[in-house]
Amino acid sequence: MTALLDVRDLKTHFFTRDGVAKAVDGVSFSVERGQILGLVGESGSGKSVTGFSLLGLVDPPGRVVSGEIVFDGTDLIAAGEKTMRRLRGKRIAMIFQDPMMTLNPVLRIDTQMVETILAHEKVGRAEALKRAREALTMVGISAPDERLKSYPHQFSGGMRQRVAIAIALLHKPDLIIADEPTTALDVTIQAQILAEVQKLCAETGTALIWITHDLAVVSGLADRLAVMYAGLIVEEGAASDVIENPMHPYTRGLIGSVPQGRAHGRPLQQIRGMTPSLLDLPSGCTFRPRCSRADEACLAVPALDTLPGERRVRCVHPFGEPCKENPVS
Amino acid sequence: MIVYLMRRIGQSLVAIMVMATLVFLGVYAIGNPVDVLINPEATQSEIAATIARLGLDKPLWQQFLIFVKSALQGDLGNSFVYGRPAVDIILERFPATMELALVALTLSVVIGVPLGVYAGLKPESIGGRSVMAGSILGFSLPNFWQGMLLILIFAVLLGWLPAGGRGETVQVLGMRVSFLTWDGLQHLLLPALNLALFKMSLVIRLARANTREVVTQDYVKFARAKGLSTRRVVLVHVLKNIMIPVVTILGLELGSMVAFAIVTETVFAWPGMGKLLIDSIKLLDRPLIVAYLMLTVLIIVTINLVVDVLYSFLDPRIRLSEVKG
Amino acid sequence: MTGEILATGGESAAPLRRTKADSPLKRILAAFFEDRLAVIGLVVFVLIAAFAVIGPWIVPQNPYDLAQLDIMDGGLPPGETSFSTGGTYWLGTDEQGRDMLSAIAYGLRISLLVAFVSLGCAITIGVTLGVVASYFGGRIDSLIMRVVDLQLSFPAILIALILLALLGRGVDKVILALVIVQWAYYARTVRSSAIVETRKDYIDAARCLALSHRRIMFRHLLPNCVPPLIVVATVQIAQAISLEATLSFLGVGVPITEPSLGLLIANGYDYLLSGRYWVSIFPGIALVATIVAINLVGDRLRDVLNPRLQK
Lengths: 329, 325, 311
Known about the structure:
The complex is a heterotrimer.
Chain A: E1 5-16, E2 19-31, E3 36-40, H1 47-55, E4 62-71, E5 74-75, H2 81-87, E6 92-95, H3 99-102, H4 109-118, H5 125-138, H6 144-148, H7 157-169, E7 175-179, H8 187-204, E8 207-212, H9 215-219, E9 224-229, E10 232-238, H10 239-244, H11 249-256, E11 305-307, E12 311-313
Parallel strand pairs in A: 3-8, 3-9, 6-7, 7-8
Antiparallel strand pairs in A: 1-2, 1-4, 4-5, 9-10, 10-12, 11-12
Helix pairs in contact in A: 4-5, 5-7, 7-8
Chain B: H1 2-30, H2 33-37, H3 44-54, H4 60-72, H5 86-121, H6 126-140, H7 143-157, E1 170-172, E2 175-177, H8 182-215, H9 218-225, H10 230-268, H11 273-283, H12 286-314, H13 316-324
Antiparallel strand pairs in B: 1-2
Helix pairs in contact in B: 1-4, 1-12, 5-6, 5-8, 5-10, 5-12, 6-8, 7-8, 7-10, 8-10, 9-10, 10-11, 10-12, 11-12, 12-13
Chain C: H1 2-8, H2 24-32, H3 36-58, E1 80-81, E2 88-89, H4 100-136, H5 138-152, H6 156-167, H7 171-198, H8 201-208, H9 213-249, H10 261-273, H11 278-305
Antiparallel strand pairs in C: 1-2
Helix pairs in contact in C: 1-9, 2-11, 3-4, 3-11, 4-5, 4-7, 4-9, 4-10, 4-11, 5-7, 6-7, 7-9, 9-10, 9-11, 10-11
């Protein structure tokens, strides 16, 4: 079975006055139908830009420079705006980070939901309203009729995110890109939304790309994890493998910085230094200046090595060295 | 909401009273009110009679009370030139000015908003830059100069439109209006355009700045991610958000349009209140000047009040916070 | 109100490049000179101002010395030769044989004089009241700001017109009217930026050092208000020139003996329709060029000095 989404060597660069920021610089991954992929990284690692690139929503001065995004047999980079528009919201939906900002403050909820339906299907307003109501019920919003007539500011943050999810689910898309959808919410609401999304995706067979900086959130949710650093995927694999046996020093650092019950009393690990400026990336391995294992070998750009068990890692000195296959033979 | 309304009305009343006091002081305290309010051509006995009637021989505070009392009754004295109550004469000219101001306001929105949104969506394009350059020119050209150029081009050189006057009018709801007859419309077009140009530049800048801000908002990107057409994103999601500041500012600017109509009416010989004011200043018809000032203050304060209240209805966010507060 | 919108309404078309100059002033100047239109505006304005200053010594006649006028030269189109002196009237003459180039030089002087003198007075009054309001706060603040709000809710032209209707014509009276109309803009601008500063720690520190009120207000608070003040002042100077011209055009501004550009245009208005365009058009062009040049500079200054846009 071919993958639902196959991204090959995607490069999205921002052409600013100060130089070219290579926000995404050769990212490849694929997502199967119904699969949940966690895309993890610090802010500025290019994970959100990757998400926007998939939908063709990168705003100037940024643009997709090269690569392939094959979605269900169609290359989205080659596709025109018309094809993209038909796809957006219908087959690939997106949920944004800040629910306070994603709903238009001056339009009522019903307007914002009905327009999404009418953008893709020729149905009557009554029918569209009915579907909007169902979608709201599905995401656990009570009294949907009343809610439909409200304005976004009358809702709490969690509620708004539920509405945004309901909008994303309106057309039962094949893929939802969720860009840090729970970051701006309270922890309890976060858990509710997570559980809700997981359930809904399982029910509808929707694949999900969950973009987050928070490994703890995504570890229980995702089937696979891809860790991004400075525009590149540095490690990829089944979620449990990556969490339990991180091979890239950066992934290890990320996991070490998550507080865990078992490690109670022990100091949290930190990744020293800061995310490098995309305008001025270090040569060779971009993680080199922050890595405790770095040496001269890291001055060359490491390749993304494929390991057994659909594991990939971009490091010269990965942890768990014995597992590494030797390509020279 | 009611509390807010009451407070707002109270503020407006204070503004009117302060302005009335200033006008009173300007007329009665700075100048000699006998000179100001009494026709220079009046006979000695007429002067004495008027002094007695207006109480100009009484102390200042008593005069003030008389001024306020008669102003409240709508009496701001008789015009020297027309020999009739000044308020009546101004109210006769009021519809012409209002028509001009409203048509100009409409023009500035209908032309200004699309241009501003366009310039906001494509700030780097040649079109967008031209619109901005045009708007700098629009508010740099003094009103009267624009009017003269319009007359020179469209009336003198091309001969397409009349240079002045109001043209044929029809009676609607007891007011004479020009825009319903072809002749009247031709007469209206140039002055309305003249009055509109400055505000249009303002609308363009306002619409552009707001558009640039709105398009970076997540909800616009989300709207695109929902698969909406660019048309719908711009016409509904962007436009609805920028219309709130534009309408608010423009509402407030309606008052200044009434004032700026003074210039346009003079250039185009449009028989409104503004031209009447300039004529009165030249003829030293002071009761008319006082009446014009008081009425214009009333109009502007009322407009500001109405716009403020309307604004709270227009923006759902404000509406809620007012209900809460 | 209008000035406010013009001062804050737009924003730069392109993000400003961070230049590697060391002082803020150098950086601002460098950013300013990146915009070609603004530089053109500045050059044009400097030329116009220079012409206004030295004009009387270089133009062929004093247009208000009747002895120098020759009625034989009346109504000559641009480029014609004088019947009496043999000199060329590059911009034509009016019906009294007055050289328009000379008239414009003298008119510009009056227009700019009125605008800059009123600017100076209005800034002094507005800044003082604005700083006082923000520094002392409380009742003084609300009193001053009430007056400002009240005044700004009425159109400038209306207030100026009424004042002049009561006071009569005259250069000094026009200046007075412009000062009364404009001070409120400066008061509001200064107050809004100073109020932010008064909440900062260093003002508290200055108070703890028991520095005098005056010293804190003018040495510590005021410098922070300078950038927005410059922006508002450029917008307002253009407005002042335009307003003075309008008032003079309406016949309530400067007297006939001291005609500014606006009055020259008004005088030529009747001839405009009969074909002697130059009597009105050339003073108009001079007026518009001045205002456009200032606005171009102001537009760029606003972009350059706006801290929100400096990334």
